[in-house]
Specification:
19 strands; four-stranded parallel sheet; 21% strand
């Protein structure tokens, strides 16, 4: 048995021959405002793009697998920067006393559904029991298909705060940050205000002491890890900017003075606007959200949208994130796509909204030389839609092809007409 296991391990470790795939005949959208490449050829070798150009000037290598793309528009894989893959909100469908193995299975299931919906990279902003690290390692090892995962581990808060890992005092926050980094966190998430799903307290509460906040951010930065803050509080946001925070989530009540400071300091904003608008009601009905929860959602909706409008007008760095499952239905599409559409409603151009889900998210993560654009040398994370989303963001509703790292994980055109689509 020992020899058999060793043989299996060697086979799994042996690198597979890099397949060459040619995506032929589609149009490659340009996210920088230049003209698209029409009747294009995209050559993928292994997990990376090796050539992109017009068909007449880009020969297809002998033996390449040709995937027809006529009539399609090719864009980078979408990126969602605020995800909880084992979301467990108050309501009739809430799972009580859930075990880590159950959380891990739900996390993997939702990761795979997210990939099929076109999201090839995500950032997890609060998980429990270390299941995010386990699932990330399994996906990275090729055991399962799934998106590229960046994770903040457990959300760290003072006692009674909006999050699961409760600690108190600067020393305890320093230890908690170090523990998450040791476990594999590539971000740290701090719940610097109250939240919609809290059964107690004000959403605009500011529970951290200044020393706790400064210490947590300093320790994270000393370990080369960025920090994001769940915020519904202008006071907490101001204090966090002083402490050097890198990003804010939600920002239900971000004021123009705070937004101006964010712009000046380069602080990122992940709006998750979709969760406070009417489209999320379908999701809340499905999970049986209680009246008090729905009332808290309604209490922030208008202010949240105004914060987004003001952030766009002030030129704040924005990366797309939903807080809903990326694949979750929302007003006839997925939460990820609906989030981008709401950015356009709030003042972005379609191209800017698409960049928030690709180029800008990659910049925020610090992986802009690997993903977020379609260029030779970049990882082959590619999505195909029926029209140019830089002109009409609603084209994202027509995703029918998804490639992650050179592997085709969805191709509706290759399915029989009667087959269900993801």
């Amino acid at each position: 048995m020992k020899h058999l296991l060793a043989t299996v391990a060697m086979l799994l470790a042996a690198p597979a021959a890099a397949e060459t795939i040619a995506l032929v005949g589609g149009s490659v959208a340009d996210l920088a405002g230049k003209a698209p490449i029409r009747d294009a050829v995209v050559i993928v070798e292994g997990e990376r793009i090796v050539a992109i150009g017009a068909r007449a000037a880009t020969p297809v290598p002998a033996g390449a697998r040709i995937v027809p793309m006529a009539g399609k528009w090719l864009i980078p894989g979408l990126m969602n920067m605020h995800v909880h893959l084992a979301l467990n909100l108050p309501g009739a469908s809430r799972i009580y006393n859930e075990t880590p193995d159950s959380m891990a299975l739900r996390t993997l299931d939702n990761a795979q559904k997210s990939l099929l919906s076109g999201v090839t990279t995500m950032r997890l902003t609060g998980s429990d029991a270390g299941v995010d690290f386990t699932v990330k390692r399994a996906i990275d090892a090729g055991m399962f298909d799934g998106p590229r995962i960046h994770t903040a581990g457990a959300s760290i808060v003072p006692t009674g705060g909006h999050g699961k890992l409760e600690v108190n005092g600067p020393a305890a926050f320093a230890k908690a940050v170090r523990e998450q980094v040791k476990a594999g966190a590539t971000w740290i998430k701090l719940g610097i205000s109250g939240g919609i799903s809290d059964t107690h307290g004000d959403i605009a509460a500011s529970p951290f002491t200044d020393d706790e906040l400064k210490t947590a951010i300093e320790v994270a930065h000393r370990n080369g890890v960025k920090v994001t803050g769940h915020t519904g509080s202008p006071i907490a946001s101001d204090t966090a900017i002083d402490a050097g925070i890198d990003c804010f989530e939600h920002g239900y009540f971000l004021t123009p003075p705070v937004l101006k400071r964010m712009k000046a300091k380069g602080v990122w904003y992940v709006p998750t606007i979709v969760v406070s608008q009417n489209g999320a009601k379908e999701f809340y009905r499905k999970i049986g959200s209680p009246p008090w929860y729905l009332a808290r959602v309604d209490s922030v909706g208008k202010a949240h949208m105004q914060s987004l409008r003001d952030a766009i007008a002030n030129g704040v760095n924005i990366a797309l994130g939903t807080d809903q499952y990326p694949w979750e239905p929302n007003e006839g599409t997925t939460a990820t796509v609906r989030e981008a559409e709401l950015y356009v409603d709030a003042g972005m151009t379609p191209a800017q909204a698409l960049r928030s889900a690709t180029v800008e998210s990659a910049r925020m993560l610090g992986v802009e030389k690997e993903v977020g654009e379609l260029k030779p040398g970049y990882l082959a994370d590619i999505v195909a839609v029926d029209a140019d989303p830089t002109r009409d963001i609603r084209a994202l509703r027509t995703i029918g092809f998804v490639m992650k790292g050179g592997k085709v994980v969805r191709n509706d055109a290759a399915l029989p007409a009667s087959s269900p689509r993801p």
